[in-house]
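Hey, I'm writing a tutorial for new members on how sequence and structure tokens pair up, and I'd like a real worked example in the thread rather than a made-up one. If someone can provide the structure for the chain below, I'll link this post from the tutorial.
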Amino acid sequence: MDPRFRRGNLVSIVKYISDREQVSNSEIAGDLHMSMPTVLQHIKTLQTKGIVEETGKHRSSGGRRASLFTLKKDLAYAVGLDIKRDRQIFLIADMLGKTVYSCTCEVPYEDSFAYFEKIRRNLDAALTASGLQRGKVVGVGISLPGIVDVSRNLLLQSHALGVSNVSFQGVERLIGFPVKIENDANCAACAELRSYKGNAVYLSLSDTVGGAVFVAGALHKGDCFKSGEFGHMVIDKDGEQCYCGKRGCVDAYCSARVLKAAGGGDLNTFFARLKRGEENAANVWRRYADYLALSISNLRMMFDCDVIIGGEVGGYLKDYQIRLMELLGQYNKFEYDNGYIKIGKFKDDGSAYGASLLFREEFIENLFVRPERVADYSVM
């Protein structure tokens, strides 16, 4: 077999397994359109090299039970860091995407060396607390609220952090790991839509409102890296002041800050008051939900695909999804089925989790082309 074709098969199999907790040979063969002898040969190679291990057997009502395979648990790990205005969220995940450790550090952002030194110290503390060896960590993905040029590791502009043209290239030397940066909503979207193959729009409702657009399972970033900046769509041209300087932006009406302000600065408190039927919380929610429904309807009209709602507020919306659909009926007169609305599974840690995924695909590719990165894993 041509070595390049063989390598492509191996990469495809490892990626396939990494997207699932455990798989059988027949599932690999069927979904990846490979012959069973080819799959058996490649699985044996991956087992020999310590990349894949057998994890059990399929349940069966009769006949021989099929073996199940997964990636070796301690194959490698990646760190996700979500930088927010007032805190740093660290999350460590393995190559199956399972979270093995997470923590939040209350650190207000500032554009200074001292701030990045705090990142180094907090990262070291997280790795120590997790019990992982530094040599098993392949990189640190950093999630940022703003417009990001990933090719240059450059934060072009962030109204939320109040900075522009901040380079993260020096952070690699400071923390001792490879670094990749990405927009926070893009990271959260990748967390929610991992392995998604269709079209979708992701709407992030956190301290700022953001989003992402997936076309055929791929993230669409736009010509100037601004795709998905839904928080700055204007829904009332004479409306409330937005932190970006404009008036009537979605962010001014639908960010988590709006609800936190009515909950003493805490979302849990706000939704507890709402469930108790407190009048002020009910009034704030009624207005918030109306603007949210208007924003979702606009997204549906523009993209005509599923709309996934995530972020901090998204984690609370399961109990209010029916009411949200009723409000959507007032704005969207072209369809009666509001099943296109999906509620995300992540709350505050979605961006950090998505940032941890930034190194996964690169690591899998490098298993078969740069064996020095992972000792004894070369199969070529």
